Amino acid sequence: MTAHLSRRSLLRAAPALVMPVTLTAPLPALAGAVATPDPLPGYVRDFKAALEQWLAASDEPGGGNFDTLACLHWNAEMNHLRELIQDTVATSPEGLAAQIEFIKADYDAGPPCAYDYPTVDDVPVPFLDLILEGLRGIAQ
């Protein structure tokens, strides 16, 4: 015998369905339970791929000045991703690691400094502040 599920029986059962959820977790905790994935690892992966394409395009005939259509395309893509990476606060340890990877990939490594290791030049301080904000948010 198949049970018939009417609108009236569904409405009568609704409080019983909701009750266990409301007793086991408050609503603010439930709202935070559905986490949005941190987009930064994907942004950095895409940035590194665009960087490789940009460098490959510069090796093509006529690409030495980085002004071919392919170079300009990949440069625009890198600029777009750079903006996303530098404007997004990390929400996970993976996002923070991705931002550090981005610094290593995007900023020129200079000659070894007095401590005998390469340095990274010209990292924008506001970007470092954003990374710190993400770290503090994750640590809470």
Task: Give an account of the 3D structure.
This protein has 140 residues and is mainly α. It has one domain (38-139). Helices cover 66% and strands 5% of the residues. The chain is built from 6 helices and 2 strands, in the order αααααββα. It has helices at residues 7-24, 27-33, 40-59, 69-87, 93-106, 125-139, and strands spanning 109-112, 118-120. Strands 1-2 form a two-stranded antiparallel sheet. Strand 1 (109-112) and strand 2 form a beta hairpin. The protein is globular and about 50 Å long.
Task: List the keywords.
140 residues; mainly alpha; TAT_signal; 2 strands; Twin-arginine translocation pathway signal; two-stranded antiparallel ribbon; 5% strand
Quick overview:
This protein is mainly alpha-helical and 140 residues long. It has helices at residues 7-24, 27-33, 40-59, 69-87, 93-106, 125-139; strands spanning 109-112, 118-120.
How many domains make up the 3D coordinates? 1
User: How does the helix and strand content classify structurally?
Assistant: mainly alpha
Query: How many DSSP H or I helices?
Result: 6
The main sheet orders its strands as 1-2
Mean pLDDT: 77
| Strand residue content | 5-15%
Oligomer: single chain
